[in-house]
Sequence to fold (558 residues):
Amino acid sequence: MNYEKLAELLFPHIDKTPADYEAMYPARDLPAGAKVTRLGPSPTGFIHLGNLYGAFVDERLAHQSGGKFFLRIEDTDDKRYVEGAVEIIINSLRFFGIQFDEGATMNGDIGDYGDYTQSHRGPIYQCFAKKLVAEGKAYPCFMTEADIAEIHAQQEAQKANPGIYGKWAKSRDLSMEEIEAKLATGTPYVIRLKSDGDMSLPEDQIKRFQVEDAIRGTLDMPVNDQDTVLLKATGIPTYHFAHVVDDHLMRTTHVVRGAEWLPSLPIHVELFEKLGWEVPIYCHTAQLMKLDEEGNKRKLSKRKDPELSLDYYRNEGYHPAAVREYLLTILNSNFEEWRIANPDAPIDDFAFTTEKMSNSGALFDLNKLNDISKDVLLKISAADLFDFLKAWAEEFKPELLHIFADRAYLEKILDIGRHEERNPRKDHIYAQQIIQNISYFFDDLFEIEDDFPQEAAGDVQAIIEKYLATYDHKDDQEVWFGKIRQIADELGYAVKPKDFKKNPDQYKGHVGHVSTVIRLAVAGRSQSPDIWEIQQILGEEKTRQRVERTRARLSKFL
Fold:
């Protein structure tokens, strides 16, 4: 077989050589040890937590080493392409603080190693496919879908490994005359890799290879025996071929991807070797897991778990700093220890390393994210929190934008109790929850959500009447609460809760039940920050109006 003639026959339109592309994409001028990483999402319209998880690893590896991190759009699967998905990818990653040095943007590519969209790089892939054909390492395959289905049925019946390889690769050994005849009739074909592997040999004779994985250590695997498709009949490359070519030309040093790609690693290693290129360091991350109702680990599911989608975190309004902080707790086992020792240090000061990553399944816990979010938001100033909430509302809750009209007022609300030395208030989690928690400060959102305490149900009107009669906005907290105690005492409630606990038959309830009535009248809920502080922010007029309104509503039912 004259393989060079075959290559020219199949690719007459390809005039550039591999040397041309090597010159076009030279080795990067970077410091020793610098890492080059990439994120290569598919534009399917769904960007998930796993994408962000991998992107964070990519970003840390590159930027901690003085390297480069780029975004490549891997859109060779045209059947799954969704219009507008690229914009979703870029905006979502930007929201969570993922910064690319080069790659695809909404305004075109940035960087010298593009085009960064695979569907625009067709001639490049065909050039290297031509090289493999010319060297007898790839071949045109004319099998139809029906042919392949029949082969799979035979393999199943014979309990043979599925796939196109060895004797099942019916087009592998066609003569030049046979190939020319099929081309002359316009028979569709794909380009397949001519693998050197042979799984029919005794197990101890099967060739194996070793490759370093930055997370999993040395991987020892059988060589590939599949004649995998490199170019589809349309000339579009498969993922297997495209990523190998692009990672070489873009000078990627570390490939971060999910563990689900481990079975394909033999194919990719063989491709690098057949093309004469150095294999990058692979980093196969553990799959994101969660505990089910029975306490068993399972994979996060697109169908079952809304928290898998990044849209979930944007819609709810999680602060990107909180999400990044949480991701590091599941990415590196020593991060939490570092954070305890460095409570105020910027997150980028943490020395991220792949050696501390789990290879058995990263456990995702939404409750833990919420706890971390409380700690992170506590460190964010009220002014910055205001800006974040307003930006979120502009996108997701424009009907609530009126609450941002008075910046000073809202910042006071957001700051309630957050600067206590011993027990600072930590109940801010995400935008949706924060706005719901503070809604009672705004008259159009105020409503009494909880029931009055049963112990004080018969005295609600009396408590409110006495409160209005004694309320003085100028009272400090101690004087104010002294008046609450007096009201409790006059109406037969224990001034000290412990007294009621000791002698419940002597009292109607205790001072806490009385103060809860006032809390509900002012804030509409039984759980809230310090009611005196709330009143100071509301102001005397609004406080009196709230309580009067509650009294008026109650009088209708008496």
Summary: The longest strand covers residues 208-213. The chain has a mean pLDDT of 94. The two ends are 102 Å apart (CA to CA). DSSP finds 22 helices and 13 strands in the chain.
